């Protein structure tokens, strides 16, 4: 598999205006790594600026680096592939069951692949404190550079490491992320085609998706990804 590189973008400036960025909101799980070498990304977009959705995306990266995308709304396929690159894209039925302490995701794909993911979250004073700090941050402040830096600091308090809150994906599309609430994963399991993927572990070499980085500890966040859209989308 060829090495993916971020495309060169002329005039790519840190102070480039963000008025064209539009929000995709919902539940975001940016990077689950397993001892078998597989990695997963899980997304449930409950609101979008397009005439698409709600919909769910599941990304799978194999130990050899092959990238799969499963999406449960066929009309969302060109949206997903605009922002990120995949080797295989398929439609799938995706069940997403969320509680305050667990998340279960079940995928039945058109290519006959099956995936079952079960995650457990920790409930600690630290998590409650960080979520309180995030909730007290005004919405207008969150997309500013100081606001994203403040959110990054809050997440570091949980030992999540630094996050790249803004940048470009591997297709050159600008983005920035805003977190409203976070749940820290303490344990979990996954089975691909009834084969156990092993234990959830810290990534030794995170899979790059442009500037997008993953936390040192896996999380599920409630928030929004603001993305650059041609024409700006709705709202």
Question: Would you mind describing this structure in some detail?
Answer:
The chain has 235 residues and is mainly β. It has one domain (22-229): Beta Barrel (Acetoacetate decarboxylase-like). It is built from 4 helices and 12 strands. The chain has a 9-stranded mixed beta barrel. The longest helix is centred in the middle third of the chain and has 12 residues, at 125-136. The chain is globular. The termini are far apart.
Mean pLDDT: 81
> Briefly, what CATH class?
Mainly Beta
Number of helices: 4
- The rough form would be described as globular
Oligomer: single chain
Give me the CATH fold name: Acetoacetate decarboxylase-like
User: Distance between termini?
Assistant: 39 Å
Number of strands: 12
Largest sheet: 9 strands, mixed, barrel
List keywords for this structure.
4 helices, 235 residues, nine-stranded mixed β-barrel, Acetoacetate decarboxylase-like
Give a quick summary of the entry:
This protein is mainly β and 235 residues long.
Describe how the helices and strands are arranged:
Layout: E1 21-34, E2 39-47, E3 55-61, E4 67-71, H1 77-83, E5 88-98, E6 102-109, E7 114-121, H2 125-136, H3 139-142, H4 145-156, E8 166-168, E9 174-192, E10 195-196, E11 200-201, E12 219-228
Parallel strand pairs: 4-5
Antiparallel strand pairs: 1-2, 1-11, 1-12, 2-3, 3-4, 5-6, 6-7, 7-9, 8-9, 9-10, 9-12
């Amino acid at each position: 598999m060829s090495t993916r590189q971020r495309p060169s973008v002329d005039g790519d400036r840190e102070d480039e205006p963000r008025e064209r960025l539009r929000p995709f909101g919902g539940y975001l799980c940016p990077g689950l790594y397993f001892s078998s070498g597989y990695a997963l990304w899980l997304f449930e977009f409950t609101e979008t600026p397009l005439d698409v959705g709600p919909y769910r995306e599941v990304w799978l990266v194999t130990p050899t680096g092959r990238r799969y995308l499963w999406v449960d709304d066929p009309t969302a396929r060109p949206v997903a592939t605009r922002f990120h690159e995949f080797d295989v894209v398929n439609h799938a039925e995706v069940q997403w069951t969320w509680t305050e302490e667990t998340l279960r995701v079940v995928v039945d794909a058109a290519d006959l692949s099956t995936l079952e993911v079960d995650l457990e979250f920790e409930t600690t004073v630290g998590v409650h404190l960080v979520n309180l700090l995030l909730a007290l941050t005004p919405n207008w402040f969150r997309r500013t550079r100081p606001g994203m830096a403040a959110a990054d600091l809050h997440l570091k308090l949980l030992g999540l490491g630094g996050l790249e809150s803004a940048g470009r994906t591997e297709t050159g599309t600008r983005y920035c992320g805003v977190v409203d609430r976070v749940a820290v994963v303490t344990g979990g399991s996954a089975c691909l085609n009834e084969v156990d993927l092993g234990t959830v572990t810290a990534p030794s070499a995170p899979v790059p998706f442009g500037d997008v980085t993953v936390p040192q500890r896996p999380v599920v966040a409630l928030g929004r990804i603001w993305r650059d859209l041609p024409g700006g989308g709705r709202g």
